[in-house]
Design a protein that fits this description.
400 residues; alpha/beta; Rossmann fold; 2 domains; 7-stranded parallel β-sheet; 14 helices; globular
Length: 400
């Protein structure tokens, strides 16, 4: 069986690592897995486009309001590669990275009748343009997107609202693919997909994101604490690729004003805002070094996931695997990721309750949660089990 994954990045960030791990597992099982990607680590397969093409695509998208309608030449080259490779399955991940023409791609998949899997790492596949919709409380995607309240978010448009056209294009194009499997990475997003333009997919199924327990596990991080002068501190960790309001940045900044001297926040991820004035926040740029992340997770006393919109937060399950409890917002997939005695959920804008939950973890100490976190993560987000689910899905969809 030959499977081609198409994703914005290869080997980095959550989606890139997911693709790479599926490919490695396919090869271990005697199958062939390849990657088509626009950025990230070099992978066996096909690199799509150049930085110049990506910038041109992004500019045209912002001017026209249409996302994924450009990169014609680069998409033509990708289709030639697909024709040469002749995959049994095409597995689509994030296509909203300004690197591919989705109309050309989806028409080709329908014409060639290639069994297609899409994994919902966010909601973009079934909305007109939005990655998420819950903060705006917008459910137009169930019928027809229009007058988009997030027109200037996600991949922003400067002038025009083309959400209606993009919604109907997706509905038509996905409707033409006979053998379509839709994978949600949580129960929450899977149930949403069943009410969307993807509801007629041949297969709609939840397969959780996973962690590799040979990599993500508790490790000694005392040396890291010493280097960061955190030996006597209660460490509150936050992790994101890019820190924005949607990821809970303002909540961290407000929280820092309430913390006592023995508590400190460590924020990992790219950040535009200057936070030097917040003396109890340590900012570390995004890192793709997995061993470094394992040490940060192990060093932390608690992870805060303050995003209101998570399809299935990788950082949450990675922290749990390292024995670190999690406090998250009671929204989207967050509650189903936190098992009993693994942490807490708090309601939006309830900063007092958030502070109480942090102090509860402080009083109980990390060891109270550690074994529960590891056991729940191993049972629920087991890498081998989840990857076997994908292999089984491929076989079902292709009729092998």
């Amino acid at each position: 069986m030959k499977v081609l994954h198409i994703n914005a990045v290869s080997g980095i960030r959550s989606t890139g690592r997911i693709c790479s791990e599926i490919i490695e597992f396919l090869q271990e099982k005697g199958h062939k897995g390849y990657m088509a990607y626009s950025d990230g680590n070099k992978a066996k397969g096909h690199k799509i486009g150049t930085k110049l093409d990506h910038k041109c695509h992004a500019l045209l998208s912002r001017i026209s309001g249409k996302q994924g309608y450009f990169s014609v030449l680069e998409t033509y080259r990708l289709l030639k590669y697909i024709g040469f490779f002749e995959p049994d399955i095409i597995h689509l991940h994030n296509l909203h990275g300004n690197y591919i023409n989705i109309n050309m791609l989806l028409k080709y998949l329908a014409k060639k009748d290639i069994p297609t899997v899409i994994t919902l790492h966010d909601c973009w596949f079934f909305t007109g343009k939005c990655f998420h919709f819950t903060v705006e409380d917008c459910y137009k995607w169930k019928e027809e997107c229009n007058h988009c309240p997030r027109i200037h978010k996600d991949n922003p448009s400067w002038f025009f609202d083309k959400s209606k056209k993009m919604y109907h294009d997706k509905k038509s194009l996905f409707g033409q693919i006979k053998h379509l499997a839709v994978v949600g990475v949580s129960d929450w997003i899977t149930e949403e997909a069943k009410q969307s333009l993807l509801k007629n997919g041949q297969i709609i199924r939840r397969i959780y994101n996973w962690v590799d327990f040979n990599v993500f596990k508790p490790v000694c991080a005392e040396d890291l604490r010493r280097r960061m002068n955190l030996e006597d501190k209660f460490v509150i960790l936050g992790v994101a690729s890019f820190w924005t309001e949607d990821k809970g940045l303002s909540e961290f900044l407000q929280l820092s004003k309430k913390l006592p001297e023995n508590m400190v926040i460590v924020l990992i991820g790219n950040l535009k805002e200057n936070i030097e004035a917040y003396k109890n926040i340590i900012h570390i740029r995004e890192t793709h070094e997995i061993t470094s992340m394992v040490k940060f997770y192990s060093m932390a006393d608690v992870l805060l996931n303050l995003s209101m919109e998570e399809a299935c937060g990788k950082v949450t399950i990675e922290a749990l695997a390292c024995g670190t409890p999690v406090i998250a917002m009671n929204s989207t997939s967050n509650p189903e990721q936190i098992g009993e005695a693994c942490g807490y959920v708090v309601e939006k804008n309830d900063r007092d309750d958030l502070y109480r939950k942090i102090n509860l973890v402080y009083r109980n100490r990390k060891n109270y949660y550690r074994d529960h976190c590891i056991s729940y993560a191993n049972k629920t987000f087991n890498k081998t089990n989840c990857l076997n689910d994908y292999i089984q899905l491929y076989h079902e969809l292709s009729g092998d």
